[in-house]
Each structure stands twice: as C-alpha cells, then as structure tokens.
Amino acid sequence: MSDPSILVVEDEPDIAALYAGFLEERYDVDVAETAAEAIDRVDAAIDVVLLDRRLPDGSGDDVLEHIREEGYDCRVAMVTAVEPDFDIIDMGFDLYLTKPVSRTKLFAAIDTLLTRNEYDDLVQEAAALAGKRAVLSSQKPAAQREGNDAYAELVDRLEELDADIDDLGESLSTDDYRAMFRDLGESLSTDDYRAMFRDLGEA
C-alpha cells in the first residue's frame, strides 16, 4: 500500500522545505509555491492539501475553490498566518491552523484528516463545521458570534445534522473523537471532545 500523498502549498521556501522535511518520513510529499503550481499539481491522487491563504500570484482561497469545483475528494487544512474571521464559515476546508505550526501539530492535523476520510459525508461535514465553530469560539467574543448571521447559520446546520446523524456520540469511538480534533489541543479530555459535538446528538 502506498503512502498517503500530501501537497504542501506554501510560498515561503524555508517553511515549505521545513514542512516537507517533517512529512517525508511518513508521506509522499509534493510542494507548490504558487497558486498556479498548486492548481496544476492537485489531482485525484492527493489525499491531503496543506494550503497557505496568501500566495504570490493569488489566494489560497481560490485554490481551495478550484479543488472543490473539480470534485477532488482530498481533505484540506488551511495553514496560514491569516487570523480566522467569519468568512471561513463558507469555505470548503476541513481544518484551520494558524502559523506557527509545530511538527507535532502538523502530524496531528494530517492524522486527523486521514482519519476523517474513513467517515461518511455527513460526519465529515459535521466535523468540519464543529471545527470551525471551535476556531471561531476561541477567536471571537460571544457577542460577535451571536450577532453574526453566518455563524447563526453554522449553528443551524449543526442542528440539522443532529437530526440526520443517529447517535453520533455513540457511533464514534473515543479515539475517533481524538483523531478528529487532536489538532485543537492534545490536552483536551474525552468530555471536552464530546462537548464539541453537543449540537450533534450527544447523549
């Protein structure tokens, strides 16, 4: 069985080389330093894309849009110095990591994304939305979240998924919870992970 394929999209050569050096011990790694290179190199064989939002010839957001429009079934982590705002809610990524990102956190994020590939579409969507909620909860005060229409729609969608996913809290093991959210902090307890899914039918 071949190693998972990772595409690193990063315009800073030193950072790109650092990430590639970390990852090559476990994965098949390719590097793109521009949006054009990323669009050219991403294909159905890629399992995970680590995507910077700021690129010299465009935006990582445009690369992400291309990936989703082409229907590539890869998981995408935004790895960027851009602080998350409410605009991330409508973006089709799976994880959002703010630089600097350690070796441990990078591996944890990729393990998380590869694990998510094993779940069906609804659970993948639930995990991505719950992750966005967690990121925004850590960055935005409650008053801003409560007054934002997009955030309200995110919460509403999580409630819809609650109706569509039977006993999600029981269908995922403790290891699955940890795998899906270990990038948010390895010190979180099992109860903390389950609390992230409180809108998704946690018993």
UniProtKB/TrEMBL annotation:
What would be an example GO MF term here? phosphorelay response regulator activity
The answer to keyword Transcription applying to this record is yes
Supply the alphabetized keyword list: DNA-binding, Phosphoprotein, Transcription, Transcription regulation, Two-component regulatory system
**Residues modified to 4-aspartylphosphate:** D52
Give the record's GO biological process terms: regulation of DNA-templated transcription
- Where the record annotates domain Response regulatory, the positions are 5-114
**What SMART domains does this protein's entry cite?**
REC
Q: Which SUPFAM superfamilies match?
A: CheY-like
Query: InterPro entries under this entry?
Result: CheY-like_superfamily, HalX_domain, Sig_transdc_resp-reg_receiver, WalR-like
**What GO CC annotations are associated with the protein?**
cytosol; protein-DNA complex
The protein's name in its UniProt record: Response regulator receiver protein
Q: Which organism is it from?
A: Halorubrum californiense DSM 19288
